[in-house]
TrEMBL record:
Name this polypeptide is given: 1,2-epoxyphenylacetyl-CoA isomerase
CDD domains recorded: crotonase-like (cd06558)
Iron in keyword set: no
Keywords: Isomerase
InterPro entries in the record: ClpP/crotonase-like_dom_sf (IPR029045), Enoyl-CoA_hydra/iso (IPR001753)
Polar residues bias (residue ranges): 1-12
Keyword Isomerase: yes
Chain residue ranges for the region called Disordered: 1-20
Family: Belongs to the enoyl-CoA hydratase/isomerase family.
EC number(s) reported in the record: 5.3.3.18
Length: 283
């Protein structure tokens, strides 16, 4: 059927800016963000380099992390990798070139300034961060997986500390997230004595919440994220903050923080609705 070509009926070209919608990100962006309701997803998007961290992706992650942190509608952030790996760690091409040029402090320092700003935002933001890991998570990729608040992994996932193999210490929050989950002795074992370990081992050590078949990872991650997003924002944010500060906070201060947190949550509309619903059922 031929379209009416008169001026009043001419087909209109869709312009995302008119509707205040973000334009699609270029496919070659080193990291991508999509937001679907209460769930945001950051995708590491350097599949040809197994999503290794270089300056470009570090800068992009810092920007995307800030965007998610500022979005009041998001309750859960998922971090995933495009291609065959979650993240192979720091980009050794970049680091090797810096070593050849005797310029490591400037190059690595700049890269980590941006990347660590992203990691700091993950811990600070009042949203739950869920890492969805498949393939390889090595070096900074391993650190990222366990710096997230929770981790779901495919059965084929392999975690490789990698740092000891090249004679360096961990970065990317590895000594924070992993140590908090397994304790200092196991952390020393993992970073200094483990070549790699499986998703099943990671689950046994308390590092991974769920292990699923590789073909089911996307769907299982989505289901897990939606389940987490059912939590009221105030309760989710307060629980995350309290749990992460507990290991380094004196008991009196922690109990005061618990008091302040629960009172603040009880002042929310979600709490009032939930209490009415619960007390109504109990009569």
């Amino acid at each position: 059927m031929q379209e009416n070509s008169s001026p009043n009926n001419s087909p209109k070209i869709f312009n995302p800016k008119v509707f205040n919608m973000p334009e699609p990100a270029p496919a070659n962006d080193p990291a991508l963000l999509r937001i679907e309701g209460a769930v945001a997803t950051i995708t590491l998007n350097r599949p040809a380099a197994f999503n290794a961290i270089d300056l470009a992706i570090a800068k992009k992650l810092e920007a995307l992390g800030a965007e998610v942190e500022a979005n009041k509608d998001v309750r859960v952030l998922v971090i995933e990798g495009e291609g065959r790996a979650f993240c192979a760690g720091g980009d050794l091409q970049t680091i090797g070139a810096a070593a050849e040029a005797d310029n490591i402090p400037a190059v690595v320092g700049e890269m980590l300034a941006h990347y660590h700003a992203f990691i700091t935002a993950l811990r600070r933001m009042p949203k739950l961060v869920l890492a969805s890991v498949h393939g390889s998570a090595a070096g900074a990729g391993l650190s990222l997986a366990f710096m997230a608040d929770l981790c779901i992994a495919a059965e084929d996932a392999r975690f490789t500390p990698a740092y000891a193999k090249i004679g360096v210490s961990p970065d990317g929050g590895g000594t924070v997230g992993l140590t908090a989950a397994v304790g200092p002795r196991r952390a020393l074992q993992i970073f200094l004595a483990e070549d790699n370990f499986t998703a099943q081992q990671a689950q046994q050590w308390g590092l991974v919440a769920k292990v699923v078949p590789a073909a089911e990872l996307k769907a299982a991650t989505r289901e897990f994220a939606l389940r987490l997003a059912q939590n009221a924002p105030a309760g989710l944010a307060a629980t995350k903050a309290l749990i992460h500060q507990a290991p380094t906070t004196p008991i009196e201060a922690q109990l005061d923080a618990e008091r302040d947190g629960i009172i603040a949550c009880m002042n929310s509309e979600e709490f009032r609705v939930a209490v009415k619903k619960f007390t109504g059922k109990s009569k």
